[in-house]
Automatic annotation (TrEMBL):
SUPFAM superfamilies: FMN-dependent nitroreductase-like. Residues 9-162 form the Nitroreductase domain. The keyword Membrane does not apply. It comes from Blattamonas nauphoetae. This is Nitroreductase family protein. Keywords: Flavoprotein, FMN, Oxidoreductase. Its cofactor is FMN. Belongs to the nitroreductase family.
Amino acid sequence: MSFLELAHSRKSCRCFSTKPVPQELVQQIVEAGMIAPTGMNLQPFYFYVLNDLKRNQELFGQIEEPLKTKVPGIVNAPLNEMSQHSTYDAPCSIFCCLTNAQSNTKEFDLGIAVDHMMMAAESLGLKTLPACLPVVAAKEHCEKAIGMEDGQSLFIVLGIGYEHETVKGQAKEKKKNLVKFL
């Protein structure tokens, strides 16, 4: 598969299967993030991997109330409906954190690393969902739950897993008019 074919096939997964993600695949995905290019080769990020569906659901179940409080559109939604906005039903979550490295490009660098992990997952037959909602609504809770070290800050959570069979094959909408050649 060419890179463009891979990029066209990648889409955010809104419903994951409960099938566990093999640890060796998770290791390959994380390696893709670790080798991503960064400004001055600083790698100003750190990854915490939670590859356990039950523990993911427990963690995200604990942030249901903060989500409802801080995100008005979710006020009456049960957590299982919130999964389309978070990684609640993903069997694997990667908590992507910024470090206190002196870098003016660390958010950009982490974005590249996350993209590398999403493309690696896609190449391995897995789907992803990059989610900021847990960070917005319950950053401190998530940081404490994963045992984050001082000098790190949660930036985004990447849900990884196999796509649930009920949503397989749904095409990604193609955007137009995003470029002007000069």
